[in-house]
Amino acid sequence: MKQEDTVPVSIVALRADAYSPDRTAVIISLTTKFSTAERKFTVPLACLHDLIVDLQRLNAESEASTTEPASEPTVTPIVAD
């Protein structure tokens, strides 16, 4: 199975627990849909910054695709007396 064919795991809870001792990462915990076990991960702050940039890009793309292009303005002809 190729990487793009993998099915995403559904996350039902995601929490930031603490900073790492050197404060370069955040310890997060998450729970998946089909498991009650809570898993903990250390995520570098740079990864979180990249995630924020990705979310902003996705939001901008979503807004751009939902807004309709501006229609041409209606011109009212001027009738001479």
Overall description:
By secondary structure, the protein is of the alpha+beta class. The protein has a domain at about 5-50. It has 1 helix and 3 strands, in the order E-E-E-H. A hairpin with a 5-residue loop joins strand 1 and strand 2 (about 25-30). The longest helix has 22 residues, at about 45-65. The N and C termini lie far apart (about 75 Å).
Tally of DSSP β-strands: 3
**SSE order:** EEEH
Radius of gyration: 24 Å
Q: In which range does the helix fraction lie?
A: 25-40%
Structural class: alpha+beta
Largest sheet: 3 strands, antiparallel
Coarse morphology:
elongated
Termini gap = 76 Å
Q: How much is the average pLDDT?
A: 86
Strand order of the largest sheet: 1-2-3
Short description, anyone?
By secondary structure, the protein is of the alpha+beta class. The chain has one helix at 45-66, and strands at residues 11-19, 25-32, 38-44.
Task: Describe the secondary-structure layout.
Elements (H helix, E strand, L loop, with lengths): L10 E9 L5 E8 L5 E7 H22 L15
Antiparallel strand pairs: 1-2, 2-3
Question: What brief labels describe this structure?
Answer:
81 residues, 3-stranded antiparallel sheet, 1 helix
